[in-house]
Amino acid sequence: MTSKVDVNGDKAHPLWKYMKSKKGGTMGAFIKWNFTKFLINKEGQVLERFGPPTDPLDMEKEILKLL
Known about the structure:
Layout: H1 14-22, E1 37-40, E2 46-50, H2 60-66
Antiparallel strand pairs: 1-2
C-alpha cells in the first residue's frame, strides 16, 4: 500500500528528510518536482541524487556497481 506524503516542509516524511539531508540538489534540500530519485545502498546510505529529467536507464551504471 502506498499513500501520498509530504516531501518538503515541516510535515515532510522522515525518510525524505533523511535522504535530502544526505544529498541536496540544485535547490538545496528542497524537492522541486516529482520523480527526484535517490540511490541508496544496502546499508541505507544515500549515495546519489538524480533530478526528475534523469532517465532511469542513465542510472544503470551506478546501480550495477551496487549489485
